[in-house]
Amino acid sequence: MMLVPGHLSDSHLSAWMLLPPGASAPNLRARALATQAVVDATLGPPRTLPESLSGWRWHVAMFTGLTGDREYVIESLQPGAAWKDECVARTLPSALPAEGLTFAIGSCFYKENDQGVGAAFRRLASSHRPRFKLLLGDQVYADVPWHAGSPMDRMRRDYFERYLEYWRHGSYAGWLQSTPNMTTFDDHEYWNNFPERAIWLSRSSAANAPLTRAAALEALETFQIPLNPPSPRHQTWYSFEAAGLPFMVADVRSWRDAFGTTAQPGFLGAGRQLADIERWCSSLRTPGVLVLGQPLLQSPAGSFQSRIADAALADFPEQYAALWRAIARAPWDVLVLSGDIHCGRLAVASCLVDGRVRDIHEFIASPLSLVASMPFGGSGSRGSFEAILPTRVDIAVTPAERIGPVVYETKGGTCRDNVGLITVAPDPNQPPSSRGVEVHCRLIDIATGSIAEAEDGPHGARCDWTYKLRRRF
Questions:
Q1: What's the pLDDT band for 149 if we cut at 50, 70, 90?
Q2: pTM: predicted TM-score of the whole model, two decimal places
Q3: Which domains does the chain have, with CATH numbers?
C-alpha cells in the first residue's frame, strides 16, 4: 500500500491511497500526537487502473473534524495486524502565526537521475519544516525514455506504468509522503512541448494527439488531481486559503492551444480559467500567491516551432497581457511561484501600472532532479537564471490598457537540483490590521540538504531572500 497526503486545512486532510493487486483496503485513522485523540477516515469508492493494470486500485480518504495547528500521524490497520504509521501531517492554523507559515515548492523530477530528494527533505531542520508542498509540474516525465517507436495501442498503459514507477520510487515516495501535497502540471505530464508536435513521438502527431491527451489527462485524474481541493470534473485549476493566505493555482498547460489551430492561441483555455484568475486577483483582501506551471518572467521562445524548444507564456500575447493586467492591478501584492526552467531563482519585475510603479516578485524552484537524456542522443541541460530574463518589455492590448515598461531584475539563483522553501509571516514592522506580510524564500540544495550557494554575486552568497508584500491600491 502507498498513502500520499493531499490538501489540508485547519480542520481536514485528504489522502490518496494506492493498493496493489489482491490487497484489501485497510482502516485509516489520524491520531493527534499531543492528545492521542483519534479521527477515523471516510474512504471513497475504489477505482481501478486501466487495461492490464486493473488489479491496482486507488481510493481517496478524507479526515474531517481535525483540530487546527496540531500534528497528526496517519495510521493504517490491515486485518490481523497492528496499527502501522504511514505519514505525519500538521494541520494549518486559522491565521498566520507570528513565526509564519512555511511551505515548499518543487518541479521537474526525473527519477533516473535522482540525487536523493526524499533524504534531502528529511534532513531539513525543524525550523524549515513545511506544512505542505506545491508540486509545480513535470512530476512525471511520461515521455522519457522517449518511446519513439512505442505503438499507440500501448500508449495509454505507458502513462499509467510511468506513474507507478515514479510514485513507488523510494526517494520520490519519501518526498511525496513527507508532507501534504497539491499539484499543477507542465508539458512532460503530456509530452515534451505539449501541445506542439514532437517529431520523435508518434503519439504527438495530429492524428494521435487527441487520444494521447485524453490518456494523459486520465492519468492526471488518477494520480495528481485527487491531491488537490475538490473541483468540477476535468477542471484542473483551483484556489484555496492556508492560514488566511489566499492561493490561486493555475493550469497553464492542459488547455493551451497548438499554434496554427486558432487565430489567437492561449494557454488558459477558452476563458473560464482567466475569469477565475481575474476575479481572484481583484477580490484580494491580503497579499496573495499565484502558482503557475511556467514562469511569468520569461522571454518568449519566438521561433520555437522550428527547433526543440517550448513556448513561453509570453508567446501567447493576448492571454499573457490579460494575466499581467490581473496581477498588476490587484489591490494587494501577488507573489508568483513557478518551476519548469531547470534553475531556481528569485526575480523582481518593476512596471508602471496606470501611472503607478508596481513590483512583482517571482520565485522559482527547478529541477528536483534534472532530466538526463534528450531525443537523438542529446543530454539534458540546466537553465540560466540570468539568460531567461529580458531586460525590458512593454505589454499592451490597447493604449488605454498599457502596462509597462516592465524591467526585470534577478536576485540570484542556482542551477543545481533544488527545493524551494517559503515562509510567510505577518510584517513585524506593521500593525496586524495592515495585513501586510514578510516573505522569506530559500533554495535548498538537494545534494547537501542546506541552503544553496548562489551562482552569481559575491563568493559565499546564499539563495536566501526576505522581502515584504503589502496593499498597493
A1: low
A2: 0.94
A3: 1-91 (2.60.40.10), 93-469 (3.60.21.70)
